[in-house]
Each structure stands twice: as C-alpha cells, then as structure tokens.
TrEMBL record:
Subunit of the oligosaccharyl transferase (OST) complex that catalyzes the initial transfer of a defined glycan (Glc(3)Man(9)GlcNAc(2) in eukaryotes) from the lipid carrier dolichol-pyrophosphate to an asparagine residue within an Asn-X-Ser/Thr consensus motif in nascent polypeptide chains, the first step in protein N-glycosylation. N-glycosylation occurs cotranslationally and the complex associates with the Sec61 complex at the channel-forming translocon complex that mediates protein translocation across the endoplasmic reticulum (ER). All subunits are required for a maximal enzyme activity. Keywords: Membrane, Transmembrane, Transmembrane helix. Coiled coil: none annotated. This is Dolichyl-diphosphooligosaccharide-protein glycosyltransferase subunit OST5. Component of the oligosaccharyltransferase (OST) complex. It comes from Lophiostoma macrostomum CBS 122681. One of its GO terms (cellular component) is oligosaccharyltransferase complex. InterPro entries: TMEM258/Ost5. The chain crosses the membrane at residues 27-46, 53-78. It comes from the Eukaryota. It is a multi-pass membrane protein. It is found in: Membrane.
Amino acid sequence: MSSPLLDVWDAASNSPYQPTVGKGSQFTVGFLLLVTAFLLGGVFGLNRSFINLPILGIPASLAFGFGAVYMICAVGVYV
C-alpha cells in the first residue's frame, strides 16, 4: 500500500532542487542589490514626490530587502 505523500517524496528525489542564484554568487548578487538600493534610495530621498515613488522608492525597497537576505545567506547566517 502506497501513500500519496510517499509518492511525492520519491518523485522529488529524482529531481533535486537547483537554486536560481548559486551559493558562490550570493555575495555578488547581494552586494549589487544593496548598492542599487542605496543609489535609488538616495536619489528618491533627494527628490521625493508621488511620481517618484513607483519609479524609485518601491524598487529601492525591494532591492534592499532581497539584497539583505542574499548578504545574510552569503555570510553564513541562515534565516
């Protein structure tokens, strides 16, 4: 008698997970995202307006969030 969960487990063992960004390049990607976030955030801070929010503010916050997670993982602190 086979359970559906066991079938899923066996099927998953045939195709291991491959991350989009490998362990060797996490530091570079994280650093570039953080630099981009600080540049976009600086430009947004100099000319804040409602029009610049979706153009500069939102991409800056997303780049900072993802860059921080990549840098944390790159230096060995797992979240």
